[in-house]
Amino acid sequence: MNLHRLFGYSQPDLSLQWFLWICLVAAFLLPSPVFAVMDIPAKTIISKDTVWQGDVLVHGDVRVEPGATLMIMPDTKVAFVKISEFGPDKLSKDKNNHFPRAEIIVRGKLIAQGLPGRPVVFTSAEEHPSLADWGAVNFIGSRDNLMEYCEFSYGHTSIHCHSAQVVVSHCTFSHNGVAIGQKNVKSLGMKCSVPVMYCVIRDNGGGVLFGGGTCPVIVHNDIRNNKFFGIFAKKSGAASIRYNNIVNNGKGIILYAVKDILIRDNNIAENADYEMSLLEGQIHDIKACHNWWGVADATGIRQRIRDHANDNSLGHIDFSDFATAPIDGAGLF
After folding, report:
1. pTM of this structure
2. Sign of the Cα pseudo-torsion (191, 48, 41, 158, in order)
3. CA atoms within 13 A on the CB side of 122
């Protein structure tokens, strides 16, 4: 590569060549460059491809328009200022599909792809953060989104999908109201497709919440220490819940008005109330075979679930072929 020709010099400058080569090598080898804080004003509309990198301070709602892509680079920290609920910094006051405080509303595409040890972080900008300081990364009718090696804290529902397609992989969720939520919206003409894989979901109000006919694939996650539930399915489609650790939550799995669901090869144990609980209105039977329930006998398992045996208006939980030891390979690895 002849740098003096490339940069328009008539004579070679060896010191300049060495300096440029060093800069190029450093750009690839150093862990991360230093960037000035990016201030994102309230009600920002992103209508063309945009990159966020470094420290990003968000002052209110941001919307990614159809046709535009927001790419968030590794080592980026996106911090949300706590705004008044449905106040002047909101783009929408629609309480059905939006959250009270600041959101990234994705109608185009969002690629937030960190690296091991270099995550993309979504969190509160408050000095003393608390749950629901910000709203959500809120996907609405959008496709081909990726959230990989990201960390989420102090959100209302840190990722929420309204009839959207998002891959959520190798992410960590803590101190949120709910880690991940999703539902279908008929008017959007598309159904959710949200695989959740290899994530750590702990110390939230709730873990994964899905309904409205959605049918996520939830595999190889560690879901623990969430105050109310690990997984809550209501009026969902044919979801698949396999090879997860669902432990030490308020309730392990809660089901309401669910017909077709696959719950198999999980460790569902040591949850405070029930390992699995059917709510009033869950009249369909549930197959939950070959899971580890924390005990190795049917009588002990029966005491840890809530179904027809507790309330004859409920369906039955079929826990036959139960594992007699923790499932090898469940969880992150």
Report:
1. 0.88
2. positive
3. 33
